[in-house]
Amino acid sequence: MKILSLLCGTDSFQKQFEAIRPNLYRVAYSWSHNAALADDLVQEALVKALKNSGQLRDPALFNGWVFSILANCWRDHFRQHREMDDIDEIEDHLCATQTTPEDDHSLSQVISRVRAAVAKLPIGQRQVLTLVDLEGFPYIEVASILAIPIGTVMSRLSRARQELKILLNELAPQHTAHVSHLRRVI
Amino acid sequence: MTTSQRISDELLNSFIDNELESDEKSELLNAIRHDDTLKERVCELRGLKEMIQHAYREPPSCIAPPLKKSAHWKNSCIQNITRLAACLLLLMLGWWSGWIMSAKSHLANNPREMSVFQAAQSNNVAEKPNNFIVNVSSSNPARLKTALDETENLLEANKRAAQPFKVEIVANGGGVNLLRSDVSPFAKRIAMMRIKYPNFDYIACKVSINKLQKNGVIVHLLPHTGVVTSAAGEINKRLIQGWDYVRI
Lengths: 186, 248
Fold this sequence. Notes:
The structure holds two protein chains of two kinds.
Chain A (H helix, E strand, L loop, with lengths): L1 H7 L2 H22 L2 H17 L10 H19 L6 H11 L3 H8 L1 H11 L2 H11 L5 H8 L3 H22 L15
Chain B lengths: L2 H4 L2 H8 L5 H13 L1 H20 L10 H44 L1 H15 L6 E5 L4 H17 L9 E5 L15 H10 L3 E6 H9 L11 E3 L2 H10 L3 E4 L1
Parallel strand pairs in B: 1-2, 1-5, 2-3, 3-4
Helix pairs in contact in B: 3-4
């Protein structure tokens, strides 16, 4: 039976993995806002999923199952790096927070503003928000992926959206009062 | 308290995320129709949701580090190899069972041939001895001795083999000295070996003999020494015939 499963069982499974990869990456990126880390997390989650593919009984639950692995990988990453501060990252952050014309310009863009606002949310709220909004998971599935009660999912989502509204207003480009007008001199 | 104030954010979130039952949904839709503040709150939440979807539609891509990629490649490679091995195993099983079944069914129809088949099977179990060609091309006496030692070992080891077999020494270059009656330090030993092992032959290369003769050397070979036009040709011929080749 093992030989038969080896011969014909894994092809459709691999296609599912290929198909879900961009979705995983999008969510991982929205959690970390770091492309390299997001890629690492997705890679790790897919390797773990491949290794434990035998544990998935119902193929219909595939998406939720893979996302829960991603959430675990994200949690593990936090545990491992809890007491570490990368000096380079701090310097990058300091450089990034200094206001330059390029930063001002990018901040005025909607995408950058929204990403910056999402990045400022507490991680629990960020996870719930992105799983619901980006992947369209029902609340019950988000609760299962993150291993939290459904009530917590609802309250975190509500708080996240409230917070986001405030943050987006804060990050919106301010129109200065001192606008220099051209004057006709002749 | 207005309708908008009575309706919680959680409920509105559930509404825009399509989490409400149809009764609750129609009740809320009715409330939204009559309350502009509520309508505004819903619009704001929907706008927020769309903004987030827009912001992450195309996240910046990352070139995966080579180590991770290789790990992934390795993983898929291992899986492919396992699958290939499973295929081969299945093919071999099929071929073997097909062969056995056809042989059995054929023999079942011809009972007289059954004993012959069984005998052939039992003979196949015993390993068929190989023929050996030993090549020596150096005049170094140590090498010449080794060639004879190896040949004798092979003859002894296969002495009790069921099938007849042969061991041949092919001497070329300086190795021809082994078979020259006036030069060879092992002439007596070779003569003894020839008596003891009838399946032992020794051959000298004509090309090498001609070279010696060109240099003014008169070549006298040991009795019963065979001569071939080329040692390389002889070795090649034997290899094609399935002999094992030993180079000293």
